[in-house]
Amino acid sequence: MRERLNGTTNRKMNLIGIVGLTAILFPAFAGVIFPASQGQVDETIRRVETGLIQQVQIKGQPARKWNLADRMALHRVPAVSIAVIRDYRIEWARAYGWRDADAKAPATVDTLFQAASISKPVAAAAALGCVEKGLIGLDDEVNGRLTSWKVPENEFTAGQKVTLRRILSHSAGLTVHGFGGYPPGTAVPTLLQVLNGENPANSAPVRVDLPPGSRWRYSGGGYTVMQQLLIDLLKKPFPEIMKETVLGPAAMTRSTYEQPLPDPLLDTAAVGYKSDGNPITGRRNIYPEMAAAGLWTTPSDLCRFAIEIMKSFRDRPGALLSSAMAKRMLTLEKPPSGLGLMVEGKNDDLQANHGGSNAGFNCYLVFYPARGLGAAIMTNSDNGSVLYGEILLSLASAYGMTGFNTIEKALAPVKAELLSRYAGKYTVTIGGQESVAAVSTKKDHLILSAMDSEFELFPETETKFFTMDMQLSVVFQLDAGGTVTGFLANNRLPGRKRK
After folding, report:
1. DSSP secondary structure string, 411-457?
2. By 3-state DSSP, what share of the chain in percent is helix, strand and coil, each rounded to 5?
3. Residue 357, strand partner residues
4. Domains (ranges, CATH) in the chain?
5. Alpha helices in 295-353 (DSSP H)
6. How do residues 63-110 score in pLDDT, each as one tens digit?
7. Largest Cα–Cα distance in the chain?
8. How many Å separate Cα 121 from the centre of its chain?
9. CA 391, 397, 398: angle at the middle one, nearest 5?
10. H or E element: which one contains 393?
11. Which residues contact 345 (CB under 8 A, 6 or more apart)?
């Protein structure tokens, strides 16, 4: 529900970044702490584990801090895995909880998680490598290089064309925000069926419905076009392309774009869980949209990727891109996007980040290229974004990172009789499907229950309510006589009160 109410993955959170010390030169020691810094690092980890805080702080109330285990239980997140970078090396990596809660199989730093949309920046590096090899220009029309399929021409492409630069910066005017995946045992479409929106694809056709270059709009569909482009350019299966161009050179030895995940790797892969704590159907969805959502990886491997980009950015020898291309990747094209990553800040505070959300998985990658700092957090739950937000704020406090702050809000005094008027059932439409949401009262605030999720809503005004993680804002609508007629969630998702 959280992801579906918010759109998908890339909402920039007012959260944080991190630290590091061990893996790029010695991959075998990833996650190992050298004895000289053991005590200091252990104390920092303890502070992180016991310093989780919510993004919203209530004015006049002291900030509360929690430990990681308690918040995992509260948010029903079976497993979380964290890796931290400092000085362009992995400083520490730890995993918590269960990769498979039913089997009581513990998560380790080698447990594989779905990277979801963090697949995009890793795939973008492969595309930029093709640019450096002269196989395509950033501003070439992609239809000139696509051979298996073409972006359909229409009135929007008459004046401006779909280019690789625009695809990577989400400004190509291409449709389809994200993808739902396919449970094992169901029909999985080919890439061409996904692009054309043909059965058994469960997503719309990828088309241009805005003038290319006109504005930013997140598009997983665009990255699926890029996936086909790389296949046509290099004449190889996409997982093989990614292994040869990015995963292998960056020493991402625990990573693969293979979909479905090969059987030998299933014993080390996390199971995805819904908001109610139950496994998703089939335990792990399949994503033929590999460039947009198909990477299986670990936080340590994501940090290795970030380290390679940062090294090149700092004019140090890197395995993936030249210094000029790494700097281009981390330069704003259409805010908030660079080429494959979200970018903000400048100089030492330049930050690159990307979030990810697949069915049953949520994750986040952030790094500061000028400072050699960064972190990756991966979870196996639809509730994972709430938890990783709290972890990020804890990391911010422990490491003094800039750019991530809590939000202070004042609670409005709302009379109990007014709150009770909001109670009842509402019809909500999400993704074209109708479902029922229920609102109930709890002391001085409300509870919204919908789509197997429950949200505590706190009053900002008599009609506007928010959640403590800022992922949901609800404005109740009243007619001229003061009767509640419905609500609007996150300014775009309506709920109609049922009689």
Report:
1. PP---HHHHHHH-EEEEEEETTEEEEEEEEEETTEEEEEETTEEEEE
2. 30, 25, 45
3. 362
4. 2-149+184-194+231-399 (3.40.710.10), 416-497 (2.40.128)
5. 299-313, 323-329
6. 889 999 999 999 999 999 999 999 999 999 999 999 999 999 999 999
7. 71
8. 11
9. 90
10. helix 384-399
11. 351, 402, 403
Residue 14 pLDDT more than 90?
no
- How far are the Cα atoms of 56, 307, 353, 489 from residue 465, in angstroms, in the given order? 13, 41, 28, 10
Q: Provide the residue count of the chain.
A: 499
pTM metric for this prediction: 0.87
DSSP codes, 96-157: EEEEETTTTEE--TT-BEE-GGGHHHHHHHHHHHHHHTTSS-TTSBGGGT--S--PPP-GGG
Reading the block at residue 28, the tokens are 């075998």
CA dist., res. 172 & res. 480, Å (int): 44
Q: Which two tokens stand for residue 175?
A: 């449709």
Measured CA to CA, the distance from residue 485 to residue 499 in angstroms comes to 10
Tokens of 490: 């996150």
Helix (H), strand (E) at residue 498: none
Q: Is 311 helix (H, G, I), strand (E, B) or coil?
A: helix
Q: How far apart, in whole angstroms, are the C-alpha atoms of residue 414 and residue 445?
A: 8
Angle between helices 384-399 and 68-75 (to 10 degrees): 160
pLDDT per residue as tens digits for the range 48-69: 999 999 888 888 888 889 999 9
Cα 331 to Cα 328, 336, 369, distances in angstroms: 5, 10, 12
